[in-house]
Amino acid sequence: MAHYAVGDRVRMRKNHPCGSAEWEITRTGMDFRIRCLGCNHQVMLPRQKFEKAVKTVLSRAGEEPSKSQ
Which InterPro entries has this protein been placed in (predicted)? Predict the structure, then answer.
């Protein structure tokens, strides 16, 4: 079981209708609330469905995105 925290950015297996597949976690627990980074739409998902739908973790909360130089 993976550990997720508020502020983590994840890529989902399916794209949102706006075209974005990147989401930010805004609530954790038995249910997850995630916010689409393309259109800011928020969705609540049960933990089991959320964990199956996540493809990769893009960045962890409090971690600075890597910059290539």
Answer: DUF951
Tens digit of pLDDT for each residue in 23-68?
999 999 899 999 999 999 999 999 999 999 999 988 887 766 555 4
37 within a domain of the structure (yes/no): yes
Q: Domain limits at 29?
A: 9-59
The pLDDT value given to residue 62: 72
Distance CA 23, CA 28 (A): 13
| Neighbour-count burial of 30, counting CB atoms closer than 10 A to its CB (0-12 exposed, 13-18 middle, 19+ buried) | exposed
CA pair distance 13, 56, nearest whole angstrom: 9
Q: How far apart are CA 62 and CA 69, in angstroms?
A: 21
Handedness of CA 61, 67, 68, 69 (dihedral sign): negative
